[in-house]
Amino acid sequence: MKTAIFYGSSLGNTQFVAEKLHQRLPHADCLQVNELMPSQIEQYDNIILGTSTWGVGNLQDDFELFVDLLLSLDMSGKNFALFGLGDQHTYPDTFCNGMGKLYYLLNDKGWHVTGFTSIDGYDFSESEAVIDDQFVGLALDEDNEPDLTDSRLDGWTASLNF
User: What CATH number does the domain containing 20 carry?
Assistant: First the structure.
């Protein structure tokens, strides 16, 4: 089964995390979403999507177009996992909303999403990425907690079922 890490990064933080994730999953391909063609996407069985949250809860710019492409494909039977970057202190009421937006789009298509994580240890007030006291993927804050990224990545990758 083939695995890929697809990410969008405006200032480099999401790319930095995607590369760290790739070190933990060396069998996976690591690609920017703005460079992908439909045939590339469809060849993977396990897809990890990484996005940051911009402004007041928006998806990263490259994901705006990528989501339309992704949703036009038949991805039934594929496994998805999400990671999202946000800023708990400056945007505590929209922390990792980009990841939440991705989750709802995938979930509306009936696609399988795995890799939920606990909200314990985070300091935010609200997030579209939280369901039943769990993030819909791995939430990271490179602005305020970069020292926790490695341990959070280690725990999360160990829990993924692919």
Answer: 3.40.50.360
